[in-house]
Write a structure and sequence with these properties.
Helices cover 56% and strands 8% of the residues. Helix 4 (58-78) crosses helix 7. It is α/β, with parallel strands linked by helices and 699 residues long.
């Protein structure tokens, strides 16, 4: 899906807009809103039970007006333009708006629906999705922390519910089926909510030991509660979800958790779970489905209308819904509403699958699978005020929207033309300088156009670099992978080949792990990418005092007065420190000029494969980049120089360069000379020796 390209110019700086909106909220208001968001999830099980039999969640809904609705409306107004653009520039947003528009329209022929009530529900949903998505965009770490503490809160509610269960009386106690409080004063609904908490808690990674202990205890309590509700739909949804994540997850500890839960499920089934399911049978589900289909056939094109009531009766049993989200929506909204919802739900699933390598994407995928199974048996009431169904429907949608806004699948500096890259991989070469790598990765996360993935090609760094990458991978908005090779001396050619072999992009950008990037760096490369060419950028070599400032947390300065050396042999003139894409387009048409440097280059993947990447015979510093450029030129791929674009600050460090890099007696220079003289287009020892091995690292 080419979302942004198909819907016009993407909103530049959307991530910055949401960050600014959240950052400029008064601290008391921000904490108030975060408390409301936490309570929206936890209050489902912890709010007092109301006096009305058929509306046990009224105290919960009233509390949300103060804790969530009021501060949310302020935030929505503050970033209204970014939200509007966000909804209009993603498939999920457009489909959601279309679904809600049809729902509101259907009130016109609904027998019980009221326009005011329907409008409140629609606004509530849009505000909910927008606020949660904006938090994910602005502060993904805080979003994950909120999920973590919400899981602990629901775990505590489950523990309290189990403790007081013997003291309560009612129909569910007579059946020995656990239930919670508030809107979850029902074993099936409570199981759905606590099961959802199990799903997202098992996908979160926490680094602090006491938090891991609490996470484990919460998951154990929630699982025990779900088992004792005897909700077979939740049992099945959890088993399918964990089995799916066991196969789909790329992190070993996530697969290990899934395996433990599946083993627990096997024990429960052996100890009597399967016998219990057989005794209860199908619980009238075939008869309910038959009657739901009959109701749908009465009004297949327009449905009964949002807010309409209907009943399904089998024997002496009467229900006011069809126990299935899809048939329920078909009855109320007809075929148009059903198709819009199916398209919306599939778009969420596609987003989740694509970004399953990041923590939020992984949690989204697990929730999507869980809800898709659970919805076949119960919990269909999406079109009403916050309830347990929101955990299964609108909450995953909000996560999907947040990922779409933060990662922005197909943006660019200009409308893409024919042959524009579909997916870009950024390969970062590093060796034993984790402090610099951290600064580089932070500058990548701040890109206006993020790459679709980051590959750190590591030439034998120590364990501290691996630890840094694992830590930063949790916060970066795109997948980050680590490709390591043993330290046997300077083998940059082989290391870059391995990084590129592990990449998925049809366009590849190379940088070094000491290059702090301008926010438009990736966007500039993509704006100037064209078939038949590879791009060569430059770098500003910072002075030691500027390097020290940057490593201490300072922001890079890209301007003629920056504290850098513009006169070194591989540097650039002060004039080129300005950023201007228009001038860059003009300059890139020049036939010569500039020096080849692999610290800032980009290529089409198929061009690299055609010449077999870097020549791995070239070990030690120098000439491997010039030799690759020569083979590309021999193969008909011309070089374009980037000036006034793709700016980067090079951190100061001792150089490994030879005193005379052009000394043709050096081994690498002799290989380079042979390539030029013999017009070689393909090297013998190159990227193809790693493709089979490293394809296993691809999703």
């Amino acid at each position: 899906m080419n979302e942004a390209a198909g819907r016009g110019e993407p909103a530049p700086g959307r991530v910055a807009n949401f960050r600014q909106a959240w950052a400029t909220l008064p601290s008391w208001l921000r904490n108030w809103l975060l408390l409301g968001m936490w309570w929206l999830l936890v209050g489902l099980a912890a709010s007092p039970t109301g006096h009305k039999v058929w509306n046990p969640g009224k105290p919960y809904h009233d509390s949300l007006l103060i804790l969530f609705a009021l501060p949310s409306l302020y935030l929505v107004w503050k970033c209204r333009r970014a939200l509007v653009r966000g909804f209009l520039h993603t498939w999920e947003g457009v489909l959601l708006l279309a679904f809600m528009a049809w729902s509101i329209l259907s009130v016109a022929w609904a027998t019980n629906g009221k326009l005011g009530d329907a409008a409140v529900v629609v606004v509530y949903v849009l505000v909910f999705v927008g606020v949660w998505a904006s938090l994910l965009v602005a502060e993904p770490r805080r979003f994950r922390r909120l999920l973590f503490w919400a899981g602990l809160g629901l775990g505590a509610a489950a523990l309290v519910s189990m403790a007081v269960f013997p003291l309560r009386s009612g129909v569910w106690q007579a059946q020995d089926r656990l239930m919670a409080f508030g809107t979850l004063n029902n074993p099936n609904l409570a199981a759905f909510a606590f099961g959802a908490a199990v799903v997202w808690m098992t996908q979160l990674t926490v680094s602090i030991r006491w938090q891991r202990i609490l996470q484990t205890l919460a998951v154990a309590v929630l699982l025990l509660f779900v088992v004792l509700t005897f909700s077979r739909a939740t049992w099945l949804a959890l088993i399918v979800t964990q089995a799916f994540m066991l196969l789909a997850a790329t992190h070993r500890h996530i697969r290990r958790r899934a395996g433990v839960i599946l083993a627990f499920a096997v024990v429960i089934i052996v100890l009597g779970g399967w016998q219990y399911m057989e005794e209860r049978g199908l619980s009238y589900r075939p008869q309910i489905l038959e009657q739901a289909f009959a109701l749908f056939r009465q009004h297949p094109w327009i449905g009964l209308g949002m807010g309409s009531h209907y009943t399904i009766q089998v024997g002496d049993q009467v229900w006011d819904h069809s126990h299935n989200i899809f048939s329920h929506l078909a009855i109320l909204l007809g075929l148009p509403g059903l198709l819009l919802w199916v398209a919306l739900w599939l778009a969420v699933g596609w987003r989740a699958w694509r970004y399953r390598h990041v923590a939020i994407g992984r949690a989204l995928l697990a929730l999507w699978v869980y809800a898709s199974v659970a919805w076949q048996f119960d919990a269909p009431q999406l079109l009403r005020r916050p309830d347990v169904e929101w955990l299964l429907g609108w909450f995953p949608l909000a996560m999907s929207m947040g990922l779409a806004w933060r990662i922005r699948d197909r943006p660019g500096s200009a409308a893409p033309g024919a042959g524009s890259p579909r997916m870009v991989s950024l390969v970062v070469l590093t060796f034993n300088w984790p402090e610099a790598l951290a600064k580089v990765l932070a500058s990548i996360a701040a890109q206006r156009r993020l790459p679709d993935e980051i590959i750190v090609a590591d030439d034998g760094s120590k364990e501290d670099t691996r630890a840094l990458i694992e830590r930063m991978a949790k916060d970066l908005p795109v997948p980050l992978r680590h490709v390591w090779q043993e330290d046997l001396g300077f083998r940059a050619a082989r290391c870059r080949n391995r990084g590129m072999a592990a990449s998925r992009g049809d366009y590849i950008i190379l940088i070094d792990g000491d290059m702090v990037l301008h926010p438009e760096f990736v966007a500039d490369h993509l704006a100037l990418a064209e078939r038949g060419y590879f791009l060569q950028g430059g770098r500003f070599k910072t002075h030691p005092r500027e390097t020290e400032r940057l490593l201490a947390g300072g922001k890079p300065v890209f301007a003629p007065w920056a504290d850098v050396d513009f006169h070194v042999f591989d540097g650039i003139k002060r004039l080129y420190a300005f950023h201007s894409l228009m001038l860059a387009r003009w300059k890139s048409r020049a036939r010569n000029g500039g020096r080849v440097m692999s610290c800032n280059m980009s290529f089409w993947r198929d061009d690299l494969l055609r010449v077999n990447g870097f020549d791995e015979r070239m070990e030690g510093y120098g000439a491997e980049d010039r030799e690759l450029a020569a083979r590309l030129g021999n193969a008909g791929v011309r070089r374009r120089q980037l000036k006034w674009a793709a700016l980067a600050a090079h951190l100061d460090h001792p150089s490994r360069a030879q005193p005379d890099v052009d000394d043709m007696s050096l081994p690498n220079n002799r290989l380079f000379r042979a390539t030029v003289v013999e017009r070689i287009t393909r090297c013998e020892q190159g990227i193809d020796s790693h493709l089979a091995e490293l394809s296993l690292l691809k999703p």
